[in-house]
């Protein structure tokens, strides 16, 4: 079980929860901190102190005082009115991540929410009662208000959930699990929705996929190097050390390890003096993507353990401060950076595909066709890769440079971080398909060169790949091959396979 404290959650732990069925619990100390914070809210209500979000309206209505007898109505009205999400729902794994991250943030003890509400979030995650949360509608400041409102609806027994493979009313799923809807008290609705958990959850899932994809890209590129009789000298350690970037050094080291006993690679001057950049500069380009991903990882792990609602309660309620921790700018920048980093993996991969299929760039059969002319082979696979790469370039435009004022100009600068995280996720899916295309072409190329001459690691990889996609003996519907291989690249099975190949940085 992963114990949430509000301070120590990691991406590796999130992977355990989201993909390996690990349950979550709350530390006693954190629950005590939450209870203490709740006591402060109840004192504020009983003393009739005027505090934003506890007994006032929200946003531009912050100066409107609310009578004590209407405090519960205030919270429910807040949740219902803010549940304005539209479009397709987030993937279930993202919504589950949102629930876990919101519970973790509330456990920091600055939000004034009752422990029973945190317990309910943990129960939702552990019982896989996953809120249906529309993807569109968040500006990424004032928190992810619309998405988190759809999450909060489930706590009060409203809205919809994914449960046991079906999309059902939340009340039905709660009833089947012996749970009852909660009535939100002062500040609790605001505490549930005022945070960055939608963009952060999408970022967590995106990062975990992107990290695996980056490792996969190096192994796929290694097979391409063999298919093109690539020159290994450019990957020499002293070349990488001379520049000094650790991620570049590590990328080159992994490729050298993958190709250590290959009979298909060459040395400079043996067939040609140097390779094109899409081969020779793999450590520099993909190492730079790793630099960006390392930055993203650092920011996500900070945000996963951050108090991002408003107001925050300090000193047993003596200080209740309205700040701006809900503003998603740090994650917006990180997501835009991840978009660029992953898009670049696709850019350079597509250029390697072109070298594999273009008869003017290698001595391989044109388009890797078994009967050039009669059969087109991989010709249109390169088209598909080019289309995906072009789409990525549009999606990679930074969302964080935009801002549209809201709430009658009270909220006059927003991050658009949730849009950035959604676009990053789309880029990752596109890039995986581009890499699947490269892998299909690379497997075909090494067959022409001689599979028996491959390195041990890449040959093992080739054999696993051939279990998914057969050799091209005749033209067929390659769309199915691309999708099948892309799905395989995403699986846990492949992650375990990579670990056997020293799948660590």
UniProtKB/TrEMBL annotation:
EC number(s) from the headed UniProt entry: 4.3.1.3
One GO-annotated biological process of the protein: L-histidine catabolic process
PTM summary: Contains an active site 4-methylidene-imidazol-5-one (MIO), which is formed autocatalytically by cyclization and dehydration of residues Ala-Ser-Gly.
Position of the 5-imidazolinone (Ala-Gly) cross-link: 141-143
Keywords, in A-Z order: Cytoplasm, Histidine metabolism, Lyase
Pathway(s) it belongs to: Amino-acid degradation; L-histidine degradation into L-glutamate; N-formimidoyl-L-glutamate from L-histidine: step 1/3
GO cellular component entries: cytoplasm
Catalyzed reactions: L-histidine = trans-urocanate + NH4(+)
Positions of modified residues (2,3-didehydroalanine (Ser)): 142
GO MF, one example: histidine ammonia-lyase activity
Keyword Cytoplasm carried by entry: yes
Chief localisation class: cytoplasm
Protein localization: Cytoplasm
Family the UniProt entry places it in: Belongs to the PAL/histidase family.
Name the UniProt record assigns to this protein: Histidine ammonia-lyase
Organism: Neobacillus citreus
């Amino acid at each position: 079980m992963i114990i949430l404290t509000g301070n120590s959650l990691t991406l590796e732990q999130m992977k355990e929860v989201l993909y390996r069925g690990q349950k979550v619990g709350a530390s006693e100390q954190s629950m005590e901190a939450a209870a203490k914070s709740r006591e402060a809210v109840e004192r504020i209500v009983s003393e009739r102190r005027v505090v934003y979000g506890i007994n006032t309206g929200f946003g531009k209505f912050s100066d409107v005082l609310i009578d004590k007898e209407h405090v519960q109505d205030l919270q429910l009205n807040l949740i219902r009115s803010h549940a304005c999400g539209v479009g397709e729902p987030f993937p279930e794994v993202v919504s589950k991540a949102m629930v876990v991250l919101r519970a973790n943030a509330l456990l920091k003890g600055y939000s004034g929410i009752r422990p029973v509400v945190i317990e309910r979030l943990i129960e939702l995650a552990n019982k896989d009662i996953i809120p249906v949360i529309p993807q569109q509608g968040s500006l990424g400041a004032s928190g992810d208000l619309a998405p988190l409102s759809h999450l909060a609806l489930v706590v009060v027994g409203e809205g919809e959930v994914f449960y046991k493979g079906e999309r059902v009313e939340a009340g039905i799923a709660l009833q089947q699990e012996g749970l009852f809807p909660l009535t939100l008290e002062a500040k609790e609705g605001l505490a549930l929705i005022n945070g960055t958990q939608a963009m952060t959850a999408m970022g967590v899932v995106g990062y975990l996929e992107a990290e695996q994809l980056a490792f996969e890209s190096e192994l796929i590129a290694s097979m391409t190097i063999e298919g093109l009789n690539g020159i290994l000298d450019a990957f020499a350690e002293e070349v990488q050390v001379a520049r000094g970037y650790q991620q570049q050094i590590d990328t080159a080291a992994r490729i050298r390890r993958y190709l250590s006993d290959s009979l298909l690679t060459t040395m400079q001057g043996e067939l040609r003096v140097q390779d094109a950049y899409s081969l020779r500069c793999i450590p520099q380009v993909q190492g730079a993507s790793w630099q960006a991903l390392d930055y993203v990882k650092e920011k996500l792990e900070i945000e996963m353990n951050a108090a991002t609602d408003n107001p925050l309660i300090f000193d047993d309620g003596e200080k209740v401060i309205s700040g701006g921790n809900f503003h998603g700018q740090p994650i917006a920048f990180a997501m835009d950076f991840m978009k660029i980093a992953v898009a670049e993996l696709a850019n350079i991969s597509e250029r390697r595909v072109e070298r594999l299929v273009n008869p003017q760039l290698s001595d391989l059969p044109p388009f890797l066709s078994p009967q050039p002319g009669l059969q087109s082979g991989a010709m249109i696979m390169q088209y598909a890769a080019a289309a995906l790469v072009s789409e990525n370039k549009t999606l990679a435009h930074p969302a964080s440079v935009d801002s549209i004022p809201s709430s009658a100009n009270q909220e006059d600068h927003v991050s658009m971080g949730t849009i950035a995280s959604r676009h990053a996720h789309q880029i990752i899916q596109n890039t995986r398909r581009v890499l699947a295309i490269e892998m299909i072409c690379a497997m075909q190329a090494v067959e022409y060169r001689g599979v028996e001459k491959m390195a041990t690691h890449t040959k093992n990889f080739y054999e696993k790949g051939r279990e998914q996609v057969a050799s091209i003996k005749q033209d067929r519907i390659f769309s199915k091959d691309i999708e099948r291989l892309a799905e395989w690249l995403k699986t846990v099975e492949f992650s375990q396979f990579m670990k056997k190949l020293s799948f660590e940085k």
